[in-house]
Design brief:
The chain is mainly beta. The protein has a 10-stranded parallel sheet, with no helix packed on it.
Length: 702
């Protein structure tokens, strides 16, 4: 529920008209690609992505829909439409009051609430034919969520805009943030910057506002482009962003972001600058507690003061420049944009994540930006099993000034990027353009973290199917290029398993592991363990004396369960454990990525762990002492606590080294990355462990 003012002004209410018509049925799961005439500084939320959609043709071309561009006039935010009910296949036309003479478009933050079923909302100039209006998508509402998105809408006759809801019922809110006016009018140009974090996890209480003073604001700046993210909220709330100096009662009467507990939500916003030095914005949280992040992507600067790199907006017909690009944890790709106008300094891009396996963040930045810099800011917060979109204003980079970089932090996702416009300095508008180019496929420049592209069986490997269980009893044997539709048992020393998938079989009535071995010298390389018939009985690997290299294990209860000495896990991906709330034993499955029951000389390095319910590494000492465990250079984000250490009757864990690891915040217990007894902490080495935002990880007392 949105906790937001309910009243619309009488002028706004009287200026609006509603119509309804019968339209041909269109599935809400297959929404059109945005085709608005004007693209936004903070653009419409991208289309909801069909799970079976095919990739766009590689030879995409760009069509510029304006030759002179537009300049921007920011306003104090104000509500222009308040909780308007809309039924299926209905439209609502709104007159925007107070528009400057000659205004061609309006920038709005649109929110859908009280949603009865999945749908899409279109925005268009007043007077647009309904069939044309509903061919584009501005917002993708879902039941149970309040969805907000920034959008620029062309103005129709009498300064009108029209909203269309495809199916189901919902209520719409719209807050005004600014106008676009012709290039010969007074206004501001966009001056891009490499994204940087201006506010990092600032804590807000209920009804609390804070002033954000921005550094490095260019002279003559009138507005700032931000990506605002809320996280760690404990109640449903909304966030407002306003120029400092606007009365708080007015500021809090509009909203930019709508957040629910347990969900990280980001939205691109453009905020008029305020304060005595015109370098401040005010952020307001309405309910509960939350942490807010703000990343700067650029400024609007008065044309008289703007640098030669500041540009007008030249919208283009929406063009897909990245289509369902698979991206694993730590993967970065370079996207080369086609037909970039001469002199263009920035691009307006809509980013969508789909087919996502776990919570992550996506960064987008100019081509050639060092990843260590790029990943300090974020543009999108993907979540499992949902299509998440956000707009981004990105400075262009690369050797030819036509590239952006997109980076995914955790899990796996498929990324889509739709180009919406360019920002071009006035001096270069109208210059002869180079011959049209096509969109080349994105180039992967980093996949340093293990994920779908660099673990498991290499792409293209030919596999021989083995139906049934497979036992190896010959010392030194090499098991290669098999697809085992049963269980693998190793009963000889120095066996190598490579380029192999082990899937298990149906019909279990007792505990089983896909692979089991206690023989010396086992090597498992470039292989995948995944349960074809998931069950609370199935683990991934159980045993010891094994080295895992570039192994992908998922879809099981515990991915690796260690029962003895001499284990090395490296460059691997342990993720998406199978969790069951109730088992025949009367309790749930306490899923772990790595569970160590006993053992000595155990090393885990450069491995990604996520998707476990209990812990990424659980040391139980259930069956004996555990010692000399090195856990270094890993990325982990899961569990009640990510690392959980129990001493039981065997005392402290001797030789424990936890160093140089990166942890996420997605634990059931807040900030519980490492949980251990004081007696183990006293003899352990714990150093240089950080959260994804650079905060230092502290040990909690177990």
């Amino acid at each position: 529920m949105i906790h937001s003012p309910l009243a619309a002004s009488s002028a706004e209410s009287s200026a609006a008209t509603r119509t309804a018509r019968t339209a041909p049925y269109r599935s809400a799961h297959r929404l059109p690609r945005p085709t608005s005439v004007l693209a936004a500084l903070a653009l419409a939320v991208a289309t909801l992505v069909p799970a079976t959609a095919s990739a766009a043709p590689a030879a995409a071309t760009v069509t510029v829909s304006s030759t002179s561009g537009g300049v921007y006039q920011p306003t104090d935010p104000r509500r222009v439409m308040s909780f308007v009910p809309m039924g299926p296949a209905s439209t609502y036309t709104l007159t925007i009051t107070g528009a400057p003479a000659g205004a061609t478009a309006v920038q709005l933050n649109v929110t859908a609430t009280a949603v009865s079923q999945r749908s899409y909302v279109s925005t268009c100039a007043g007077g647009t034919a309904v069939d044309a209006c509903r061919a584009s998508s501005a917002l993708n509402p879902e039941p149970g969520y309040d969805i907000a998105g920034s959008v620029i809408v062309p103005l129709g006759s009498g300064n009108t805009v029209t909203f269309y809801n495809n199916q189901g019922s919902l209520k719409l809110i719209a807050d005004l943030e600014g106008f676009f006016v012709p290039a010969d009018s007074t206004g501001s140009l966009f001056s891009p910057v490499a994204p940087y974090r201006a506010l990092s996890f600032a804590q807000f209480g209920p009804k609390e506002s804070k002033v954000l003073t921005l550094s490095g604001v260019p002279a003559g700046a009138t507005a700032v482009a931000l990506n605002v993210t809320s996280t760690r909220q404990n109640a449903s709330t909304y966030i407002s962003a306003c120029p400092t100096g606007q009365a708080l009662a007015q500021c809090s009467a509009s909203s930019n972001l709508n957040a629910l507990p347990g969900v990280d939500v980001a939205n691109a916003v453009v905020v008029k600058l305020g304060g005595a030095a015109q370098n401040q914005v005010t952020l307001y949280n309405n309910a509960g507690t939350t942490s807010i992040i703000a990343d700067v992507t650029g400024y609007y600067v008065d044309a008289a003061s703007a640098s030669s790199a500041a540009g007008r907006l030249l919208p283009v017909a929406p063009t897909r420049v990245m289509s369902f690009q698979p991206m694993g944890a730590g993967t970065a790709v370079v996207v080369t944009l086609p037909n970039v106008p001469v002199g263009a300094t920035a691009a307006a891009v809509n980013l969508t994540s789909t087919r996502t396996t776990s919570t992550s963040y996506v960064s987008a930045c100019p081509g050639s930006t060092a990843l260590s810099t790029c990943t300090k800011a974020s543009s999108l917060n993907p979540r499992a099993n949902r299509d998440i979109s956000n707009s981004a204003l990105l400075q262009l980079g690369g050797p030819n000034g036509n590239q952006i970089i997109v980076y995914n932090n955790a899990g796996s996702t498929a990324m889509i990027a739709d180009l919406q416009g360019f920002f071009v300095p006035p001096a270069t508008i109208g210059l002869p353009q180079p011959p049209p180019t096509t969109t080349p496929p994105p180039t992967v420049i980093a996949s340093g973290l293990p994920g779908p592209t660099n673990t498991g069986v290499p792409a293209g490997a030919a596999l021989t199917v083995v139906n049934g269980d497979y036992t190896v009893s010959t010392p030194g044997a090499v098991v290669s290029n098999l697809d085992i539709r049963g269980y693998l048992r190793i009963k000889a020393d120095n066996v190598t398993v490579k380029n192999t998938i082990v899937r298990g079989r149906d019909g279990l009535t007792t505990s089983m592991s896909l692979v089991q071995s206690t023989s010396a010298g086992l090597q498992i390389v470039d292989s995948e363990l995944v349960a074809a018939y998931p069950s609370y009985y199935i683990d991934g690997f159980v045993g010891n004396n094994v080295t895992f290299t570039r192994v992908n294990i998922h879809g099981v209860v515990d991915t690796i369960k260690l029962t003895g000495d001499n284990v090395l896990i490296q460059d691997s991906w342990l993720h998406d454990n199978s969790y069951y709330a109730m088992t025949p034993s009367g309790h749930d499955t306490h899923t772990d990525n790595i569970q160590i029951q006993k053992g000595n000389n155990i090393t885990v390095r450069n491995t990604v762990m996520s998707g476990s319910r209990n812990a990424a590494m659980m040391i139980t000492q259930d069956t004996g002492p555990v010692s000399n465990v090195v856990w270094s250079g890993n990325h982990a984000d899961s569990g009640s606590c990510t690392i959980n250490i129990a001493e039981k009757t065997y005392g402290p864990i001797r030789g424990l080294n936890l160093s140089n690891n990166i942890f996420g915040y997605n634990t059931e217990i807040d900030h519980c990355s490492i949980l251990m007894p004081d007696t183990t902490k006293a003899v352990a080495t714990v150093a240089s462990n950080y959260y994804t935002d650079g905060a230092v990880v502290a040990v909690k007392r177990g």
